[in-house]
UniProtKB/TrEMBL annotation:
Domain SnoaL-like: 3-88
Phylogenetic classification of the source organism: Bacteria, Bacillati, Actinomycetota, Actinomycetes, Kitasatosporales
Source species, domain of life: Bacteria
SUPFAM superfamilies found in the cross-reference section: NTF2-like
InterPro entries: NTF2-like_dom_sf, SnoaL-like
The protein's name in its UniProt record: Nuclear transport factor 2 family protein
A matching Pfam family: SnoaL_2
Amino acid sequence: MNAYVTAVNGKDLDGLVRAFAADAEIVDVGRSIRGHDAIRRWAQAEVIGGTLTVTQVAETRDGYQRLLVRFAPGGTGGFAAYYAFTVDGSSITRAELTYA
């Protein structure tokens, strides 16, 4: 999760993609994005250039963390959301993003 947040705020597209397992899935408000190529396209179009602030760790258990965040596309304004990450080792295998 830290790698994802750091990559978003550092505008590091390659770092964001590397945070995920090769066959990882992102569910972005019901839309499924699966695999590195699709994650790269999604992140380049919708994530990189924004700012992400973690406001609360809502839940933590082995292999899972749910964060309350504020995401500001383009770096200003923004909205609150829950980002739930499932991890295996150091790779994110699933991320579910929902509005708070």
